[in-house]
From TrEMBL:
GO terms for molecular function: hydrolase activity, acting on carbon-nitrogen (but not peptide) bonds, in linear amides. Residues 10-254 form the CN hydrolase domain. The lineage of its organism: Bacteria, Bacillati, Bacillota, Tissierellia, Dethiosulfatibacter. Coiled coil: none annotated. InterPro entries: Aliph_Amidase/BUP (IPR050345), C-N_Hydrolase (IPR003010), C-N_Hydrolase_sf (IPR036526). Gene3D superfamilies: Carbon-nitrogen hydrolase (3.60.110.10). The keyword Hydrolase applies. This is Predicted amidohydrolase. Keywords: Hydrolase. It holds the Pfam family CN_hydrolase.
Amino acid sequence: MSEERIELFVKIACIQTEVKLKDKEANMAIVISLMEEASTNGANLIVLPELFNTGYTFNNRTEITSLAEPIPEGRTVQELIDYAKEKNIYIVGSLPEREGIDLYNTSVLVGPNGYIGKYRKTHLCGDEIYWFESGNLGYPVFHTEIGRIAMIICLDGYYPETYRICALQKADLICIPTNWAHCDHLPAPWHTMGPTLTMANALSNHIFVAACSRVGQEPGISYAGHSLVASPTGAPISTIAGKNQQIIYAECNLADTRNRYLDKTNSRLANRRTDLYGEFLGYSTN
């Protein structure tokens, strides 16, 4: 299978914020200010953390219900749309979504022409099971002028199948809004497995991965930061962020992923032995 070679140059900015719990106005003001800095510095794709407008830890479902919004009609997504149109950029970020009586941890993608699509987190973590429904939209890949973009959220990235499904749908880039927790038992300097998993899965699937974490404290949890962008070689092509509020940048050609189809002698997807995997993983052996 072959594809015509094209160029898809993009400058990615991961905006690692210190989110204020349950303060949507303050969080949006911080995000707008940092997006202004990122867009001024030439970024045309901005990735925000998980639940960037509300924070993550809640006492009960009622608290988060009061903060959740319909997508795309809600105020937060409309503000992102307006900003993306004004600056001619793309934005990814996760926020609590309300649909009827159900709540979801949802990542949105908006761009210069408005709302593009959403992904709902499928692997819920900890107390999330008490207020969010597990995602029901699969793993969509959105075709944009800058490339094919997929999204997963935080704990989804601990399941290698999520990356593989996106890669098999020919995604060029997976964006991961995340809230990686600081874990004392994990080695310095990161104290989180997030960067390791990001790099390993970028390599395994020959894909770009942009993971945007957050920093700060909430009851019972300290956030690790360490946002990064990894290339199809697995190597980081951005600075790996520290544990402070900051923006990291990566410049890349997303079309570099497409040589996995052009060169089958070195294709991590085409060279899979599905005839051997099928019995255990449900692959077709045809």
